[in-house]
Design goal:
four-stranded antiparallel β-sheet, 8% helix, Jelly Rolls, Tachylectin-2, Chain A, five-stranded antiparallel β-sheet, Gamma-B Crystallin, domain 1, mainly beta, single chain, 35 strands, 3 helices, 555 residues
Length: 555
């Protein structure tokens, strides 16, 4: 009897233990997967992208067809080289590479560029890619490229006849098979039917009544028998996203108002798509470049409809709430998130994060992540307070074995005070024309991982950051400057005339060359609400100099 009971009890305990273990493991998997059930914004971080058109095809993947902003330029005219991105889960995104460039367009503007907002639709086994581009006479045309694949092998077929001078094409195929082209000229939306060959307009392009706030980038979709057009408006200084509704694809349209407030850029071009039962708005912002209008990044957020079909105000999300770790550069292939605490190898494994597998980190404001080469917080370490897109750049890609996460006590009003890189070697938040002589510099003696370097003669085009101040408040400012041995002249950090009497820091080459020198100053803001910090040199400068660790705090 006891033996039989023992035989019964022992397997039951094992079953309970096994069940508890399975439940625990399942919960851990759910935690890891749900640590963030979508890619954080922006969704592309290794290059600048804008004007996102999102489409879902029969393979059940979501594809985004954006334009490309070129780093280091200050003009939309340089936009060139279309890429395509896709996902099956909104977490891991694939860059399918460049599928079209101005060099592939025989009828295009000889100097290239002018490859603005594209679109793509699928019809009878063929993907039609529509792109605006200026022709040899520098007049806008709407080009057409085709492929039997959604993300490769596109070949230019020519341009739409009857669509001259229009740009920002959007093509909508209705349930009855009728095809409509929407495009822009003089900040107004025009539309017409497309012929079945997808290369010719049927009739004339007609102004769309009821989209009077329209500025650019129309996108039309259909939901429950109603037609919707979303578009950026003329709001200044930054556009906002409006929409109109209609019972007819060619209008007239009824304006319905605002669905997304302004970003940190002039433009806000986007699209709306349903994916796995949820609608999303795709758009762009300037978060990776620090608000540079021609260096944009595509984002997406969920859309919700009211019972009457109107669209609710869309809430923008940016970044992550907790430090988030990835097993590939550019924030793809996500591991999961961690809160404040110390994590050894066993702790990382428990949270689904593979030691020696972290390739990029996303860090919200107010957090500090210290990464260690070895377990138990030993070996070489790296300290991060900003998103680190590619750990290769600082030498710790896939070699992190333990880490510490803390809350930051720093209250520095200057953004990117150590000139850390953002995307494509851009120095985030610091304005100024691109110059090979004035650029980021990997410096192991700097406060962060990089400093700002100038090599050359005379004064460079200055790098400037504007910082908000509270009037009648005391502040303290510090900055580190360095001049290489053999240089002549001064390296200068000043406030562009606002507080230069007390806050113009100059390091002369005749003094202490070859080492970092810290300068400090205290001032009262008085009636000023902003201050412009400027990095430059004296007009007689010749050699190499550096700026680093600029800190502004309330005193």
């Amino acid at each position: 009897m006891n033996y039989r009971n023992l035989k019964i009890i022992k397997p039951t305990k094992m079953k309970k233990t096994t069940s508890l273990l399975l439940v625990f493991l399942l919960l851990m998997v759910v935690f890891i997967v749900n640590a963030q059930n979508r890619r954080s914004n922006p969704i592309v971080s290794h290059m600048f992208t804008a004007d996102a058109t999102a489409r879902v095809w029969e393979d059940e993947r979501l594809y985004v067809y954006p334009s490309t902003d070129i780093a280091g330029t200050r003009s939309y005219s340089t936009m060139d080289g279309y890429h395509i991105f896709s996902t099956e889960d909104l977490i891991t995104w694939k860059d399918h590479g460049e599928i079209l460039h101005s060099r592939d367009v025989s009828w295009g503007w000889r100097k290239g560029g002018y490859m603005w907002a594209p679109d793509c639709v699928y019809k009878d086994g063929i993907y039609y890619y529509f792109f605006p581009h200026k022709n040899a006479k520098k007049i806008w045309e709407i080009g057409v490229a085709t492929s039997r694949k959604p993300a490769s092998d596109f070949e230019v077929q020519g341009y739409i006849k009857g669509g001259e001078t229009f740009c920002d094409p959007n093509v909508f195929i209705d349930d009855d098979g009728e095809i409509y082209l929407y495009a822009v000229v003089d900040a107004k939306c025009y539309a017409a039917k497309l012929k079945d060959n997808m290369m010719e307009i049927e009739g004339e392009m007609v102004h769309q009544i009821g989209t009077d706030e329209h500025r650019e980038g129309p996108f039309v979709f259909k939901r429950k028998g109603k037609y919707y057009m979303i578009y950026p408006d003329h709001h200044r200084p930054y556009n906002e996203m409006q929409y109109s509704m209609s019972d007819n694809p060619l209008g007239p349209w009824e304006p319905k108002g605002l669905i997304m407030e302004q970003n940190d850029l002039i433009t806000m071009h986007g699209s709306m798509v349903e994916f796995k039962g949820q609608w999303y708005l795709f758009y762009h912002n300037g978060s990776l470049s620090g608000g540079i209008s021609v260096n944009r990044s595509i984002c997406f957020d969920p859309v919700y409809f009211n019972e009457d079909g109107t669209i609710q105000m869309i809430k923008k999300s940016l970044g992550v709430e907790l430090p988030t770790f990835y097993k590939a550069i550019n924030f793809n292939e996500m591991f999961g998130t961690l809160s404040v605490g110390n994590y050894q190898q066993k702790d990382l494994k428990k949270n689904g994060i593979l030691p020696n597998g972290i390739s990029s980190i996303q860090i919200p404001d107010g957090y500090v992540v210290e990464c260690f080469e070895k377990d138990n917080f030993k070996g070489e370490s790296w300290l991060f307070e900003e998103d680190r897109i590619d750990l290769n750049a600082v030498g710790c890609n896939n070699i992190i074995s333990s880490l510490k996460i803390t809350k930051s006590n720093t209250k520095n009003l200057v953004k990117n005070s150590s000139f850390e890189l953002a995307t494509q070697n851009q120095i985030k938040y610091w304005r100024g024309k691109s110059s090979e002589k004035l650029s980021w510099y990997r410096d192991t003696t700097a406060k962060g991982f990089y400093s700002l370097q100038y090599k050359g003669e005379g004064s460079p085009v200055e790098k400037v950051q504007q910082v908000q101040l509270s009037p009648k408040t005391n502040y303290e400012l510090s900055v580190m400057l360095k001049i290489e041995n053999g240089s002549t002249g001064q390296v200068i950090f000043d406030t562009n005339g606002t507080f230069d009497e007390v806050l113009k820091f100059e390091l002369d080459a005749n003094n202490r060359a070859g080492e970092w020198i810290e300068f400090n100053g205290v001032f009262n803001s008085g009636d000023s609400s902003t201050i412009d910090f400027s990095c430059t040199t004296s007009v007689d400068f010749n050699g190499a100099c550096y700026w680093d660790n600029i800190v502004l705090r309330e005193k």
